[in-house]
Amino acid sequence: MTQTGMRALFLEELTRVAPDIDPAEVSDTDHLQEDLELDSMDVLNLAAALHQRLGIDIPEADYAQIATVGSAVRYLSAAASAD
Amino acid sequence: MGLFVMPSLGADMESGTLAEWLVAPGDTVARGDAVAVVETQKGAIEIECFEAGTVQELKAKPGTVLPVGAPMAVIRAEGEAAPELDAVPEPEQELEPQIKPEPAAETAPAPARGTVPAAATAVAGTVKASPAARVRAAELGLDLGTVTGSGPGGAVVLADVEPAGNRDTGAPASRLDEMRKAIAAAMTRSKQTIPHFYLSQTMDVQGALDMLAARNAGVPPSERILLGAVLLRAAALAAQKAATLNGHFTDGAFHPAEQVNPGLAVALRGGGLVAPALADVPAMTLDGTMAAMRDIVARARAGRLKSSELTRGTITVSSLGETGGEVMAGVIFPPQVALIGIGAPQLRPWVHGGEVVPRRVVTVTVAADHRVSGGRQAARFLSEFETLISQPEAL
Q1: Nearest residue on chain B to A36, judged by CA atoms?
Q2: Does A39 touch chain B if contact means CB atoms closer than 8 Å?
Q3: What pTM value is reported for the model?
Q4: How many CB atoms are located within 10 Å of the residue B281 CB?
Q5: By the CB < 8 Å criterion, does B321 face chain A?
Q6: Quick check: B222 contacting A, CB < 8 Å?
Q7: Whose CA is closest to A67, among B375, B322, B325, B49?
Q8: CATH assignment at residue A48
Q9: How high is the ipTM of this complex?
Q10: Which of B270, B297, B323 sits opposite A41 (nearest CB)?
Q11: Could you say which DSSP state residue B157 is in?
């Protein structure tokens, strides 16, 4: 999957967890918790949704690598191509 | 029973708007079944009935604003005679006072039940508006045609009329504005009537975090447990040992609760806040507590809570999560008598096993009603909480 495709997929799952976020206004440098105001329950639900959709299980130890939208897309792209 | 009335879902609720019936005449209902959806300042709430029976008559129409206590339906218990309907006050008499309907409205086709609120029926040449909005607009001398409606199908509802009349901006009040109003009323009343006192203690949660890290490493995200669930269990179990923090203060007296039903303060993006309560958390497992939290937080965000979840709370737990502030001294949610504020975990030098080592700690703050309890009971709670969180496997 391309980075663009992965980004679209990520934003789809993100806005499913947080329906009040407008995907058009999300930038790659946005921090999931500080800028987009996801709490730990939202991050868990997002991780669960991504696991179900992509089969990529993000361990808690890797949460720092998905802290921003851009880094999360890179993390997921790398994990998807490693399979 | 007989009459099913608009319940009070909080001390400051005056009315709710019937959005949808979930039952029809002839349906049998069990205790706890959701029978209607009501729009309140806290979002759309599923109203549950308290007794089993058969729905005999739906008295209120969707779209109607009903004050607390107004009759909504007649539900007949098994073997019970139908109540005397004539003795029942009609809500419409209070709600649609002396306003003649637009002539065209009488010939408009009736909308399908549960889709378009009857009071907001589209009528050619007239403005769609709820009866309450019409009354208020007439009082304010406001032309409804100049108001932007936020109701179903663009109908003007009461909230649209108020800001337009008061501020002359024409901007409709959003649901979040309505929620802020409800929070303001409840919190102002709390601070004006409840003599709050506060007691804090900072405690080591590294053991609980280590336990969760080990446990969560081996399971997929859907089975992981958050620190919040462990803290909620500790708070609920500690509240069992501090009876004067768990219950309601009503009619000038404290009524301790037999169960611990902790309300969970859920922050909504944009500034809203709602505190739905889980039932009897001490009887749950840790997995069960986590599942119940996930469910109730999801429904709080989606704006679909149940009436019992808004009224059964006996104490509130407000946890600032992983990235919030360090200490929170909260405002008690009446008629409850205590709120437990839990700060975000902080990495601190801490004495552990006789040595100073880096550990994660949280500060737990009890806000309590001094009419009911004192420092001794709050200290008992904190001491119990610390003992529980130091043995996380037992939670």
Answers
A1: B269
A2: yes
A3: 0.77
A4: 25
A5: yes
A6: yes
A7: B322
A8: 1.10.1200.10
A9: 0.87
A10: B297
A11: -
Structural domain of A10: 3-82
CATH topology of domain B3-89: OB fold (Dihydrolipoamide Acetyltransferase, E2P) (2.40.50)
Encoded amino acid at A38, one letter: L
On average, the pLDDT of chain B sits at 84
- CATH superfamily label, B103-173: E3-binding domain (4.10.320.10)
| Tokens coding A75 | 């993390």
Distance CA A23, CA B10 (A): 35
Q: Which tens digits make up the pLDDT trace of B100-149?
A: 444 444 444 444 443 434 333 333 345 676 666 666 676 677 777 777 77
Q: Chain A contact for B68, CB < 8 A? A: no
Tell whether B297 lies on the interface with A, counting CB pairs under 8 A: yes
Q: Which of A21, A51, A61 sits opposite B221 (nearest CB)?
A: A51
Which residues are within 8 A (CB) of B295 and not within 5 positions of it... i.e. 6 or more apart? none
CATH fit for domain B195-394, picks 3.40.630.30, 3.40.1190.20, 3.40.640.10, 3.30.559.10: 3.30.559.10
Please check whether residue B101 is in contact with residue B35, taking contact to mean a CB–CB distance below 8 angstroms.
Answer: no
Nearest-neighbour CA in chain B from A1: distance (Å) = 23
* CA-based nearest residue to B342, from B233, B184, B225: B233
Cross-chain residue pair B221–A33, CB shorter than 8 Å? no
Task: Indicate if the pLDDT at residue B335 is higher than 80.
Answer: yes
Residues 97-156 of B with CB under 8 A from A: none
> Which segment, B86-100, B157-171, B325-339, is predicted with the most confidence on average?
B325-339
pLDDT tens, residue by residue, B356-377: 999 999 999 999 999 999 999 9
What is the pLDDT, as a whole number, of residue B152? 64
* Alpha-carbon gap, residue B302 to B37, rounded angstroms: 14
| Number of domains observed in the structure of chain A | 1
- Write out chain B residues lying below 8 Å of A45, CB-based: 294, 298
Contact status, residue B329 vs residue B339, Cβ threshold 8 Å: no
Q: Are strands B196-204 and B355-369 parallel, antiparallel or unpaired?
A: antiparallel
Say yes or no: B187 contacts chain A, CB-CB below 8 A.
no
